[in-house]
Amino acid sequence: MRNVRRYFEGGYYFFTVTAYRRRPFFQGEAFMQAFRNAIRKTMKTHPFEIEAWVVLPDHMHCVWIVNDDQIPVRWRKIKSLTTKALAQHGNQSKAHRNSTARRRRGNGSLWHHSYYEHTIRNEREHELYVLYCCYNPVKHGYVENALAWPYSTLRRYLSSGKYPPEWAHINSSWLDDVFGSHE
């Protein structure tokens, strides 16, 4: 995202990050462990707060609070650390080998080279994007109840009180009404 001009330093952001060629690479315990470790390491050097996160087999959505303009650095580091950790564990099959340019950028064969970013402008948008993250597994048909999806902040944040208790009972049909059928 070289040519992106941010008019604000910090704030609330919604992201969509996809797997390379939308292949289902974002699954399994090896990926999740490498990904979580990459997030933890990145947060130590480039702090951010997670408001919502969901990881699906071929893409993920999240809402962060960031206090500077170093968003691309954070994503580059998360992608690179995850890719390196999986390569060290032999989880890159011959069919998923990547070009020299992709390896040099740190994307490997896991990640699409860019991501979608949206600056959240008000409380209503914040609530909608957090809900969108939490209920995306239902939208894509992976589960019937969002609480059943294991790779989401929904259950943990409900139990800690960060999300309102009524979110456990939301009918997710509103997603298509508010956001349409896009991701």
Automatic annotation (TrEMBL):
One Pfam family it belongs to: Y1_Tnp
SMART domains with a match to the protein in the record: Y1_Tnp
SUPFAM superfamilies on file: Transposase IS200-like
Every Transposase IS200-like domain range: 8-133
InterPro entries linked to this entry: RAYT_transposase, Transposase_17, Transposase_17_sf
GO molecular function, one term: transposase activity
A GO BP annotation: DNA transposition
Superkingdom classification of source: Bacteria
Matching NCBIfam families: REP_Tyr_transpos (NF047646)
Record PANTHER family: REP-ASSOCIATED TYROSINE TRANSPOSASE (PTHR36966:SF1)
UniProt-recorded name of the protein: Transposase
Lineage: Bacteria, Pseudomonadati, Pseudomonadota, Gammaproteobacteria, Alteromonadales
